[in-house]
Amino acid sequence: MTHASVVDRRRFLTAGVGLVLGTPVLWARQGGPSAAGREVVDDLVAANRILAMEGVLDAMGHVSIRHPARPDRYLLARSLAPELVTASDILEYDIDSRALDDGGRASYKERFIHGAIYRARPDVRAVVHCHTPSLIPFASSTAPMRAMYHMASFVAAGVPVWDIRDAIGVSDMLVSEGKAAASLAGALGDRAAVLMRGHGAVVVANSLPNVVGRSVYLDVNARAQVQAATLGGSVRGVAPDEARLRMSDPNEYGRAWELWRKKVGL
Q: 123-172: per-residue pLDDT in tens?
């Protein structure tokens, strides 16, 4: 047997051990993220694939989940196109967005968004950062987003626009350090989403299914608002009191999540 064959065989056997234990080998080695459970990892992989399938994310953007056993940590894929993410790509980060054990793999430059929001919002369990094309006109204009229909009721609470220039001055527009990330989290406040001037958006929720659902329907809502504006009449959307009743459902996108997971085969 050649040396290459021996190495390949060892890699295969090592990966097999990880699968039998139900967690990636990297996690078992560092002794921390295994507490999150394989189900949580699989959900995060599914979230990446679904957001890519629905056009919310493309080669860029990312989604994370707060560690279920360690609220001061979160799980996020390594720097990789979301559609390609697998369980072995999931890394654990502390609240300052430092990887506990990256195995030499690159992290997303804008991972600081996630850490800053988890620090500022104890209620948030999942975060999406996206560059969805339908949101850019609202992120780069003074036209406010409005809740066009019940599936995007959370928009009725308002979607603020954050400008990185106000936070750190002239930059490459990436939230790649803590000061900008903390400013973004402050602009988000207690809302479900915030737009980023000339960049994209951040969406948060109390669960992965809900943050995926909000991200998908924020996109649909933006397109519906532009379409409604072209009709020339007045626009009537979801009122704040109606939105509060709609948002009282803690599992608002459960049925959609089940369908989307089936579509991506997870």
A: 999 999 999 999 999 999 999 999 999 999 999 999 999 999 999 999 99
Q: Considering the entire predicted model, what is its pTM?
A: 0.86
Q: Which two tokens stand for residue 232?
A: 């020339």
pLDDT in tens, 218-242: 999 999 999 999 998 898 999 999 9
Verify whether residue 110 is a known catalytic residue: yes
19, 85: one domain? no
Residue type, 214: R
Which of 54, 92, 110, 252 is catalytic? The answer is: 110
Same domain for 18 and 78, yes or no, is no
Angstrom distances, CA of residue 95 to CA of 91, 99, 116, 204 = 13, 10, 7, 16
Q: Which domain holds residue 25?
A: 1-31
